[in-house]
Amino acid sequence: MKDFLKETDFQAHELAEVFALARDFKARRGRAASAVLAGQTWAMLFSKSSTRTRVSFEVGIHELGGNPLFLNRNDLQLGRGESVEDTARVLSRFVHGLIVRTYDHSDVVRLAASASVPVVNALTDFLHPCQIYADAFTAAERWAGAGGDLVGSLRGRKIAYLGDTCFNMANSWILGASLFGMKVALAGPKVYEPGPEIRAQLKAEGRAAEFHFTTDPVEAVRGADIVYTDVWASMGQEEETDERMAQMQPYAATSKLFAAAKPDALFMHCLPAHPGEEVEQAVLDNPRSVVFDQAENRLHVQKAILAMLAKGRAR
Ligand code: CP
Ligand code: NVA
User: Fold this and answer.
1) What's the pTM value of the predicted model, to 2 decimals?
2) Which of 45, 52, 103, 140 sits at 20 to 30 Å (Cα–Cα) from 80?
3) 53 lines ligand 1 (CB under 6 A)
4) Domains 7-127+295-314 and 131-290 share a fold
């Protein structure tokens, strides 16, 4: 496997390796540095804003001995019409890997097809796999405990996903859960139910995902081990903000709704959050909210993903 464009690009046994590496990187942080990217430059080609993804990748590449090269799409000829394919071919002559954040998922697929170096999806409108891996690792750390079976601790768990159930985070949980052995209950307005694209993806991969959509948020959170939400208007949807606010209001992660999940359920949000909109501040501040652990774990898990891809290239 050359690229990491979607959750299922790693198989179950490789996921266990990613998590084991991430646990090790986290434990050793600040001590013995790993040099798996020594002498390498990884380009980060971003068409959207980012705090967590950009910083965690830049720091992570440094910590692996490599050199991150941040490229804003508009500063490249790509922004003036040079093709995705030629951009991929040219960058492949200079750098050892490409980390890409963009709108249309087919752009990362095309980049990866034309690049001779690994391509990592750092968020598209369709999927955000680096986030999902860090989220699953965050839950697994809690559930498996020190030295326990991280991947095994996820099996059979239920996640309730609230709000916009047809965009990148919801899609990624649906696809990711099919790898983790988790069940997903999604609750949101009917017009935002999971779309044909994610269903087609599951079908193409022959995956029987355990996901269920409902318009009833209480039904979704009942028995859930994780309650998850994301912003109601994602990057690129700013013009729809008012309409989305009105439609998604019943799906806000309130203390009352969180209390309807399992008593030890975790609260998760990929961040950035809009307190008072999709989530109550009290829920973000709840002792069972792990939102900042999720953010920190982006660093450790992405280092593990990069190490796996670099190893693959060396084979
Ligand atoms: N969660 C996440 O990807 O955050 P950024 O948009 O800040 O990178
Ligand atoms: N759904 C959000 C996720 C941000 C990390 C967006 O795409 O803007």
Assistant:
1) 0.97
2) 52
3) yes
4) yes
